Amino acid sequence: MTVQPRPAILSIDPYVGGESKIPGVNRIIKLSSNEGAFGPPPAAIEAITRAAREAHRYPDGNARALREAIGARFGLDPARIICGNGSDELITLLCTAYAGEGTEVIMSAYGFMMYDISGRASGAQVLKVPEVPAEGGGMKADIDGILATAGARTRIVFLTNPNNPTGTLLPSSEVARLRAGLRDDILLVLDSAYAEYVTAPGYDPGEALVDAAGNTIMLRTFSKIFGLGGMRVGWGYATPAIIDALNRVRGPFNVASASQAAAVAALAEPGWVETCVAHNTAWRGRVAAALAAAGHAVWPSETNFLLVDFGSPEGAGQADARLKSRGLIVRGMAGYGLPGCLRITIGTAEECQMVIDAIGAASPAHG
Ligand SMILES: *Cc1c(COP(=O)(O)O)cnc(C)c1O
């Protein structure tokens, strides 16, 4: 007899990442994983090179310099920050610490796949709450539905805002209403991976809610606007009790030294976020307009990607084939239950123009 994992483990569908190769195509443009458009910040590349010479040393297990740099940048107490091997690790640690056998974890139907994977791995049952139409198009998390689903066994509610893969933003007042309606012994995980890209006024990535309400953790990442997905650095801001619980279950050296150095340097890169946001806002608008002019339904987005609805799996397949023939790889959404949609990351100006040429209308005036 072979060794068997716990039954819950075999109920997990393994995570399928964005594709990165097309057979027979040399120049690949990867717009499938929402990575930053401009590569790593130059200062981060230098920091990684420098850190290589100290690679025989264990990292600072408390990520002190990084937590202090994050605290200074965002005006937060470093003692209430935890760093992880990507925010993915923090999601797993949260499920280990707060969920487990006999409990329930709640997420939105079109929420991030890692909540499902980590929740199940812990032994919890993962409940997916159907979404409701958003103003301006697309779908959004149903706050009333989540509140109605939360029961005696619920331990964690995961919410991404703005959401991946839909791109839609919930008003911060709605997120606060969710927190207020949940029992105090239910942890709200507010995943703000795309916070920097938001241009809508009045957005709270989570700091204010953590401070006001407790029992809440905000998750952030260096994988998107800071261009360091390959270095695996994420962080969380929460109450001291939550940070303490996570510190007990994490590995002692969970963030590599080169990764810590890269993240500190990325925060110090002058003008990086401002430049990336200005580029993203401009090109997100241009790509959305050109695709809408070609008759495709583009969901409103406050992120660095667009969810585009082609009306049917066949329509999405045809668009995907046209993109692929030009070397453009985007993300199919069948795994998320949206088989008529494709998710397209906002890349460089040239890459965005290639998307427009492949599946957009040249300009609304000529459409
Ligand atoms: C990209 C993304 C993350 C970031 O994960 P890392 O492990 O930090 O790379 C987290 N949550 C959501 C919703 C994301 O889209």
UniProtKB/TrEMBL annotation:
Biochemical pathway: Amino-acid biosynthesis; L-histidine biosynthesis; L-histidine from 5-phospho-alpha-D-ribose 1-diphosphate: step 7/9
Cross-referenced SUPFAM superfamilies: PLP-dependent transferases
Keywords on record: Amino-acid biosynthesis, Aminotransferase, Histidine biosynthesis, Pyridoxal phosphate, Transferase
Residue ranges occupied by any Aminotransferase class I/classII large domain in the UniProt entry: 28-359
CDD domains: AAT_like (cd00609)
N6-(pyridoxal phosphate)lysine carried by residues: K224
Swiss-Prot/TrEMBL GO biological process terms: L-histidine biosynthetic process
NCBIfam families, per the entry: hisC
Family: Belongs to the class-II pyridoxal-phosphate-dependent aminotransferase family. Histidinol-phosphate aminotransferase subfamily.
Protein name, per record: Histidinol-phosphate aminotransferase
